[in-house]
């Protein structure tokens, strides 16, 4: 009997443009799977992902946490 996946996830949406931002912020957005406005990604909620979200918190919005 397979157990249902209970991993925590976080859904983020890009709300800011990477234009005229430092290269590391652009690369962080790409690492999160975001590179165009209003893209939404559901990611596993890990400390690494949380750190990336905090680094570009002015460019992304956390839509949903499960």
Mean pLDDT, nearest integer? 92
- State the strand order across the main sheet: 2-1-3
Name of the CATH class: Alpha Beta
Order of helices and strands: EHEHE
Our count of domains comes out at 1
Class from helix and strand fractions: alpha+beta
Tell how many strands the DSSP assignment holds.
3
Q: Uncertain spans, ≥5 residues at pLDDT below 50?
A: none
Shape: globular
Q: Please tell me the CATH architecture by its name.
A: 2-Layer Sandwich
Most strands sheet: 3 strands, antiparallel
Named CATH topology: Ribosomal Protein L30, Chain: A
Helical segment count: 2
Using only CA atoms, what is the Rg?
13 Å
| Portion in helices | 25-40%
The CATH superfamily appears as Ribosomal protein L30/L7
Distance between the termini: 24 Å
User: Into which percentage range does the β-strand content fall?
Assistant: 25-35%
Q: If you had to describe this structure to a student in words, what would you say it looks like?
A:
Keywords: Ribonucleoprotein, Ribosomal protein. This is Large ribosomal subunit protein uL30. By secondary structure, the protein is of the alpha+beta class. It has a single domain, classed as Ribosomal protein L30/L7 (Ribosomal Protein L30, Chain: A, 2-Layer Sandwich), CATH 3.30.1390. It contains two helices and three strands. A three-stranded antiparallel β-sheet has the order 2-1-3, with no helix packed on it.
């Amino acid at each position: 009997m397979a157990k249902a996946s209970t991993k925590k996830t976080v859904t983020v949406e890009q709300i800011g443009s990477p234009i005229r931002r430092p290269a590391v912020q652009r690369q962080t957005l790409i690492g999160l799977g975001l590179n165009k406005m209003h893209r939404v990604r559901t990611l596993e909620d890990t400390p690494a992902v949380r750190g990336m979200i905090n680094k570009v918190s002015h460019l992304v919005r956390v839509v949903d946490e499960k």
